[in-house]
Amino acid sequence: MNVYDVIVIGGGFIGVSSAYHLARLGSRVLLLEAYDIASGTSGACSGRTQVNEGHLDDLNLFLIREGYKRHQTLSEELGMPTDWHPLGYLCLVKEGQDHLWTSWSERAVALSKAGIPTEMLDVKSVQEAEPKLNTDGVMGAAFSVEGVLNPFRLCYAYVEAAKRFGAEVRAYTPVTAFEIEGQRVVSVVAGKERFSAGVVAVMCGAWTPTVTRLAGIEVPIQHTAAEAFITEPLPPLINNTIGLADFYETIHGKGKAVSFGVSPHLEGSLLVGEAVTMTSELHRRVTSWGVSLVAAELAHYFPTLGHFSIIRSWGRPTSFTPDEEPIIGWLPGLDNLYTASCMIETITKVPLMGEYIAQDIRQERVSIPFERFSPLRFAAQR
Ligand SMILES: Cc1cc2nc3c(=O)[nH]c(=O)nc-3n(C[C@H](O)[C@H](O)[C@H](O)COP(=O)(O)OP(=O)(O)OC[C@H]3O[C@@H](n4cnc5c(N)ncnc54)[C@H](O)[C@@H]3O)c2cc1C
Fold it and tell me: Is the minimum distance from the CB of 373 to ligand 1 under 6 angstroms?
């Protein structure tokens, strides 16, 4: 009963999309998630299909452009709404940040040339786009049309579609051990149960190192802890997602930092982030300083907002590798242990990447140079 072609561990964007594509291609799949589906970092995110913030190489631009297109028909493909809709993104550059204005102007040219239209707006145009935004100290903004969806709906749409193709999905089933014989993981232990499969795929986001370590394998995944919150439904306030061009400068290398980003969601709530802490601990907590400083940023940029209620706040780890590229492929040392984690612009790319990951696991031809993401690149550096 407990024998599968592939066991996927982790019910976030990467795990659920890979499980769906594996099942669709004919693999017998088991998905194991420690808590609820989307209870990790996927259920903590802003739901943006980001298009303009990533690396500018050809492969990344292709994945953004084509992944973005797939979102336009994804609800139809999966048979459930993801609530995806196009929405503008205004990336604010502040006065005195001439270096960011220059780099975003260059980025806008490269993105537009690659089919991702991006333009630089002066402060007057920013104010016209967002009449209620406090533009004191704002020089202008980079603007692209991206999109936003409900991350829980995206995950559940994938899960339900995977089930229709025969996948078995077990929530509240944390993997606690691997049994290894020779070069193979022969069973996955979750509590009192044991499961076997030809391939075991660890897709646990920031928790990936804790799971691969059960097989004695270290992966160079690091994380920061990020906090965000959602407000009660509010009268219309903003027309676009708004963020700051100095986000990465602000948080980079700091023990604690606060930046600002806000997205409007369908029912009128605002999803607002982020306070970031550098920590080795993997936790889901928020801090009083984080939530209050992010709320103060919201009040600064929207002074007419007045009082608002936060209906939920959360913290989750955000994972990344030393070279800020994803880590996807077979892990060295064992013949059947695979991993996929640390994508950038994960939501935008996941409809494509889930399919490529499934093909790679099934040892079918993948039409992009997937070896670029291989964990072996880190083994080679040691
Ligand atoms: C505040 C915030 C805003 C963000 N906004 C965006 C955005 O707008 N757009 C975007 O693309 N990205 C955004 N991100 C990043 C995005 O959320 C992540 O890239 C993405 O969720 C990672 O997905 P994942 O599947 O790799 O990991 P996760 O969603 O973390 O999934 C891993 C799963 O593995 C499970 N797991 C762990 N250990 C075990 C175990 N032993 N056994 C079984 N299961 C286990 C966990 O419970 C978890 O559910 C944001 C992140 C944050 C924190």
Answer: no
